[in-house]
Amino acid sequence: MAEPASQTDSAAIELSKKSSSDSRSAETTMIEAVGLSKFYGPFAAARDVSFSVKKGELVAFLGPNGAGKSTTMKMLTGYIAPSEGHAKIAGHNMMDDRIAGSHRLGYLPENGPLYPEMTPLGMLEFFADARGLAGSKKKDQIDKVIDICDLSSVIYKPISKLSKGFKQRVGMSQALLHEPDVLILDEPTAGLDPNQIRGVRRTMRKLSETKTILLSTHILQEVEAMADRVILINEGRKVYDGDVEGLRTTGHGDLNEAFHELTGQKEG
Ligand SMILES: Nc1ncnc2c1ncn2[C@@H]1O[C@H](COP(=O)(O)OP(=O)(O)OP(=O)(O)O)[C@@H](O)[C@H]1O
């Protein structure tokens, strides 16, 4: 399907977003999907999905429920193998060079990690050990992610007793422990109340100052609040890749309308 934003519009906005001083680093591709497909029997959960995310971008990966967002993210992270195509993180092919890619990548899976009996501190120590962090480096990294994710008030409570907002931030802290420069976050605000959403978005904004982020969501307000660029997927296929304003234009000034037009979803 043709991409609605004109190349001229996209190029102009891209230029205005990036200052000349960071334009060189912005050319580095950090996340790359090349013809990714995933078949379950005859059913295609993702079909020929290609896109790239450059260093420093915060891109929303938008689509209705069941569109194939999680499946694509799992292929990008090397968690499942594609049926066709390949994925690269910071230039590393996630099938045959996955360990090197994983060092650069923090992944928050859908629903976050579930270690209900552990405390956030215990979980972070466990993952720090698993990642080979030791001594003062281990302590410093744990302190740093507790600070970034605002977890200091809950580090000794069992994760099972925490609110969903804190659970998501605990999941985020684990994804950040090894200082990755690429983050893939699968619906980090799903199921949260408005205050919790504010907290998680604040954390993501802080992170976006230094990291490249791909963030999945099916909420249009999330796209408006967080991202400059949006990739829209429907029934496993990419149907839009461009800036938020271009998407709005597709819907004659209304993002909801654009979503409905491009995904065939009817209201009500
Ligand atoms: N292991 C599997 N076996 C069969 N079908 C699957 C499998 N995993 C996902 N699917 C199907 O693939 C489609 C895409 O699922 P996926 O979880 O990627 O969607 P999503 O966009 O993340 O949706 P949501 O927003 O609801 O999480 C859905 O129809 C889902 O039922």
Automatic annotation (TrEMBL):
<dbReference type="InterPro" id="IPR003439">
    <property type="entry name" value="ABC_transporter-like_ATP-bd"/>
</dbReference>
<keyword id="KW-0813">Transport</keyword>
<dbReference type="InterPro" id="IPR027417">
    <property type="entry name" value="P-loop_NTPase"/>
</dbReference>
<feature type="region of interest" description="Disordered">
    <location>
        <begin position="1"/>
        <end position="26"/>
    </location>
</feature>
<dbReference type="GO" id="GO:0016887">
    <property type="term" value="F:ATP hydrolysis activity"/>
</dbReference>
<dbReference type="GO" id="GO:0005524">
    <property type="term" value="F:ATP binding"/>
</dbReference>
<protein>
    <submittedName>
        <fullName>ABC-2 type transport system ATP-binding protein</fullName>
    </submittedName>
</protein>
<feature type="compositionally biased region" description="Basic and acidic residues">
    <location>
        <begin position="15"/>
        <end position="25"/>
    </location>
</feature>
<dbReference type="InterPro" id="IPR003593">
    <property type="entry name" value="AAA+_ATPase"/>
</dbReference>
<keyword id="KW-0547">Nucleotide-binding</keyword>
<feature type="domain" description="ABC transporter">
    <location>
        <begin position="31"/>
        <end position="260"/>
    </location>
</feature>
<feature type="compositionally biased region" description="Polar residues">
    <location>
        <begin position="1"/>
        <end position="10"/>
    </location>
</feature>
<keyword id="KW-0067">ATP-binding</keyword>
<dbReference type="Pfam" id="PF00005">
    <property type="entry name" value="ABC_tran"/>
</dbReference>
<comment type="similarity">
    <text>Belongs to the ABC transporter superfamily.</text>
</comment>
